[in-house]
Design a protein that fits this description.
Lipocalin, 17 strands, 3 helices, mainly beta, eight-stranded antiparallel β-barrel, eight-stranded antiparallel beta barrel
Amino acid sequence: MKKKLAAIAAIGLLCALATGCGGGSDDSSSGQPPAPALNPQGFWSGTTSDGATINLIVLETGETYGYYASNSHMSSGIIDGAVFGDMAFSNTQLSGSWLDFNFYTQIVKSYSHTGNFAPQNSLTLRFPSGVAYTATYGSGYDQPQAPLSTVAGNYSSGMGAIGRMNFASTASLPVSASAVVSASGAITLSPIRGCSANGTIQPRASGKNIYDVVLNLQGSGCMLLDSAALRGIAMYAPGSGTSVGGALLIEARDAAKTGGLFFLAGK
């Protein structure tokens, strides 16, 4: 979906995922930093062996959220789909699965993977098809969370989509979407193909640069997800150096892990 502000927002998020947007660690202690825990959590940005770019957010629990596009689309700010999944990990090995919501084929598929990682450095996933994904760590994950007063605002001219595995395995085409976030963390999303959402966004207790989101859906276009709360994450990227005041990514899924919502916009 070639929406100019959605493209700018995506570029801002890419910057935060890949490089931390020029920021560094706020650790002022002297001496060698402690070795990172054996955990794949973080912002990861990389490419697949078949020519796609994927940006992932992996939480300390192994929950996984992300979005992807062909390399040419991503560089133009066009998002092709979203993923929602889980990882289990031991030492530096991992395994897991995710749902792939392809916005343009409108198909939802499930994929399993295995892989390995070096904490805060590199991550590799391998899929049964033979496709491999190789990613590097984004230092923005370790930066302080922006206060909700900074995240608050009107996010417009973005994109939104929903999908569900058990609803004819359907993902909706993305549509123009907007959201309003208050300084207390209340959030209201404009209808996405007849599905409205409201809820809360709050800083995650881990202290990492990520937020917890709870959304309640309502409307005929919600693919029967309107009876359950969706839980997931939000990522905020400041708008320094861009024509928008900041970018907001939201991904949330139902408790059964069969459906979810994707939102990306700038303010």
